[in-house]
Amino acid sequence: MKNQRRKFIQMGAMLGMGAAFMPLQFCAAPKKEEAIADAPETKSKLSNFGIQLYSVKEDMALDAQATMRALAGYGYKQFEGFDGGKGILWGMQPAEFTTLMNETGVSMVASHANVFENLDVQAAQAAEVGMKYLICPWIGPQKSLDDYKKKADEFNQIGEKLKAHGIRFAYHNHDYTFVTQEGATPQDILMDNTDPALVDFEMDIYWVHVANAKPAEYLAKYPGRFRLCHLKDAEAGTGDPHQRGVLLGAGEIPYADLIKQSQGLGMEYFIVEQERFPTGTPMEAAAANAKYLSALEF
Fold it and tell me: How far apart are CA 34 and CA 220, in angstroms?
């Protein structure tokens, strides 16, 4: 009996010790898990973004230098130009243009240009002011896929010529290259028949979207081929694709997700472009779009 009583006493002591330790064991792990769950998710922002100067083409025509200074004040760190009839440097000499960029703290990363004429002259100017790209903004719908293949060959040749100047070549899409033709997508023909060492692409996300293609899927289909993109939003609906442009954040394109995804697929330059202005002036739209991108987290 004494031995049995001693065993019961020992077992009770052990159970008591276990009871004392159990709350500590079972509380410690959940606290750690809760701390992890409560940790804020790290978000990113675009440190640099640009604007296609065509967005404010009327203001550029009136006073290019004043317009570019104002845009820099809105927070744009990069410009993408176009030839408004005064050349890709807007009538300025390279030294004058470079001084303007230095004073405003902006990089002229690219220009849309007629790459089918006077290419060497334009390339020399672009190289002198530090541009990275000359971009073909338009070829128009082609009659056949063979015609698109011919354009791809021409793009390769242009890319080879620009390479000699230290400049990259890119093609900017519209909606027509995402409309099925002869059972294929013309944009695929351009992608598949150009040399990645010579030809990059600038995705106009708006035009892909309104052509009922999926920008996210297409970026993933051709990783590393799209180095620049145009950011402009589209109002919800299925109306005229030329009449759906709105301020960034006012439409249906999920830019936070697209920017995050595209950065992992080789995208380097994010360029605002707006061509329709339901309210306000182009310069007011440029200011609002810069404000939106400055605050966007992804």
Answer: 35
> Do 187 and 225 touch, CB atoms closer than 8 A?
no
Q: Tell me phi and psi for residue 114, to 5 degrees.
A: -80, 95
Lowest mean pLDDT among 2-6, 84-88, 127-131, 255-259: 2-6
Q: What is the pLDDT of residues 242-289, one digit of tens each?
A: 999 999 999 999 999 999 999 999 999 999 999 999 999 999 999 999
How far, in Å, are 174, 184, 198 from residue 205 at the CA level?
A: 9, 20, 22
- DSSP states of 136-182: E------SSHHHHHHHHHHHHHHHHHHHTTT-EEEEE--GGGGS-BT
Give the separation between CA 149 and CA 190, rounded to whole angstroms.
7
Q: List the structure tokens of 213.
A: 């293609």
Question: What span, in angstroms and rounded, lies between the C-alpha atoms of 240 and 243?
Answer: 5
What single letter denotes the amino acid at residue 144?
Answer: S
Answer yes or no: are the C-beta atoms of 271 and 228 closer than 8 Å: yes
Say if strands 78-81 and 168-172 run parallel, antiparallel, or are unpaired: unpaired
C-alpha to C-alpha distance for 19 and 32, rounded to whole angstroms:
21
User: What beta strand segments (E) does 67-164 contain?
Assistant: 78-81, 107-112, 133-136
pLDDT above 90 coverage of the chain, percent: 84
Query: pLDDT value at position 38?
Result: 60
Neighbours of 169 (CB within 10 A): 25
Token pair 């439409």 is at which residue?
251
The three-state secondary structure class of 31 is: helix
Evaluate if pTM is beyond 0.70. yes
Q: How far apart are CA 163 and CA 83, in angstroms?
A: 21
CA atoms within 13 A on the CB side of 110: 32
> Which residues contact residue 236 at a Cβ distance below 8 angstroms, ignoring those fewer than 6 apart?
251, 252
